[in-house]
Write a structure and sequence with these properties.
Layout lengths: L7 E6 L6 H15 L6 E6 L5 H7 L5 E5 L16 H6 L4 E4 L2 H6 L4 H14 L2 E6 L3 H5 L3 H12 L5 H4 L3 E4 L13 H19 L1 H6 L2 E4 L7 H5 L6 E4 L6 H13 L1
Parallel strand pairs: 1-2, 1-8, 2-3, 3-4, 4-5, 5-6, 6-7, 7-8
Helix pairs in contact: 1-12, 7-9
The structure holds 2-phosphoglycolic acid.
2-phosphoglycolic acid binds next to strand 8.
């Protein structure tokens, strides 16, 4: 299987941005711009929990899919402040970001909880976008490969081959997130290829070739084409540049052009 037959996915990660009126305004602006991507590139907006309703209504009948930015692993119970996978499905969510480095860094997320959340999301029918990536000092120490391979093995532990095909992996070098420092296209390709090789060891080549692997970390309107042209970069997870319709659309169009 080749890149051309894998699903290209461009997903915005809005993080803690946008009120509901602002969310509607952004999605209303985006809808006509990205309509031509239908059937070619999956366009996703991962939004704060409070915007899900607004986002689902605003994008009804369009080719924009809605995602959440986190999910809890238990079905229900005494977990103050948390949201379950069933609640997200009921709200009309299709994708969910799991294990983002900001959650690992600020909210104590571990590979174990990432694994639990991923399994809970899959069991509920959500498509997880599982984030992995090395810290700057880990790259400087020359252990990027080990770090990322370990994350893939732990985060996907006990996930079946069938479910892995529904899972998106986002390679996000932590030093590139929100810093304006993008990995070069060659650096992104090198690690995305390593992720695919790790998946091949765990699940076999056919499954590994079917998994969409995104790059994320200061991807923007200027650098997207070069990154997305790489064989193992099947899409992007975009923070800052997803908050402006024109910039996000430029990235979607770069993916449409392949
Ligand atoms: P950024 O964020 O594009 O603002 O670097 C990417 C991400 O955190 O997913």
């Amino acid at each position: 299987m080749k890149k051309s037959v894998r699903k290209a996915i461009i997903a915005g990660n809005w993080k803690m941005n946008k009120t509901r009126p602002e969310a509607k305004e952004l999605l209303d602006a985006l809808k006509p711009l990205v309509a031509n991507a239908d059937g070619k590139v999956e366009v996703v907006a991962c939004v704060p929990f409070t915007n899900i309703d607004t986002a689902v209504s605003a994008t009804e009948g369009s080719n924009i899919k809605i995602g959440a930015e986190n999910v809890h692993f238990e079905k229900s119970g005494a977990f103050t402040g948390e949201i379950s996978a069933d609640m997200l499905v009921e709200a009309g969510v299709e994708y969910v970001v799991i294990g983002h480095s900001e959650r690992r860094q600020y909210f104590g997320e571990t590979d174990e909880t990432v694994n639990k959340r991923t399994k809970a999301a899959l069991a509920a029918g959500l498509k997880p976008i599982v984030c992995v990536g090395e810290l700057l000092w880990e790259r400087e120490c020359g252990i990027t490969e080990e770090v990322v391979a370990r994350q893939i093995k732990l985060d996907l532990f006990d996930v079946s081959a069938e479910d892995v095909k529904k899972t998106v992996i986002a390679y996000e070098p932590v030093w590139a997130i929100g810093t304006g420092k993008t990995a070069t296209a060659d650096q992104a390709e090198e690690v995305c290829a390593l992720i695919r090789a790790t998946l091949a060891k765990l699940y076999g080549d056919e499954t590994a070739q079917a998994v969409t692997i995104q790059y994320g970390g200061s991807m923007n309107a200027k650098n997207c084409a070069e990154l997305l042209a790489k064989e193992n970069v099947d899409g992007g997870l975009i923070g800052g540049a997803s908050l402006k319709a024109d910039d996000f659309n430029t990235i979607v169009q770069a993916a449409v052009e392949g």
